[in-house]
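Worked problem 6 (solution included).
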Amino acid sequence: MNNSENIGIAGIGIYVPQGVHTSRYIAEKSGIPVEVIEEKFGIMQKHKAGPDEHPSDMAIAAAKQALEDFDPAEIDMVIYCGSEYKDYYVWSLAAKIQHEIGAKKAFAFEVMALCASGILSLKIAKDMMLREKDINNVLLVTASKELDLVDYTNERSRFMFNFGDGAAAVLLKKNYKKNRVLETCIITDGSFSEDVMVIGGGSKFPPSYKTIDKKLHRLDVPDPKGMKERLDKVSETNFIKVIKTCVEKSGYTIQDVNFLAPIHMKKSIHSALLKYLGLKEENSFYLENYGHVQSADAIIILKEAQNRNLLKNGDLVVMVGAGTGYTWGATALKWGES
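Solution. The predicted structure is:
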């Protein structure tokens, strides 16, 4: 392994569908006051894919945008790190992406850590690229249409009412002198493993008229109160831990962080993380018009930050994700010229 080599982000693509669920729409469907949706949930609107717009369509669109100035025939590896809810059940979306974009020499596989998959995939891709001399260009793609699985009338699942549809992609290149991927920290607490799930459709409750009648094919939280009580005790602490650890592993301190690119979260937690890092609102981007697009969140923020000139050359950026299960992760980036 040659640790002197750089792995850099050479391209970013995002795609969101035209359909939207506004805060007012969510309030009407859920019975939650619109001001709570906007101020506590942090949602003004989010995107909703149409019935004929599938995760593969969105993933491929984002991938092509990330590869706008790059020949897909030069890609060595494709990783799909998005939602398990895909066009088909028990199916490789990674292989579909590889074929549709023309990455003929690339091998393709999937990484699943729910909404922390993007952070985990950055680590996996970087480690493999540094280890293997013939892996030089890697495409990470994530997509989500999980809004299909959200039932606004199910109060148990209200913490998922921020879910939105969309996709994002990142092109990684070896010895690319810009936007270097630094170190990653990941924490998993498996005591939350059965707190959030789609109950119907697996081996315990195979698809049947009974599972359909009982609406078991939507996301659900069997014990929302219990989960919240346990999660409130550890979530913010674990966010801080993964941020601090990935920064220190990269050779910096938290005082060096210039920009935060986190998963969509409650405004109160987002503000607390900014305060911990000594950052202002302009040192981040809040996804109030996207919602939570699974593991695409931090990538969408990077793209928005680029478009809005929020990132400066030399900035230390931290991407943060968290997925039910429960896994927290953070990756540090050195933005701009190395």
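Discussion: The mean pLDDT is 96.
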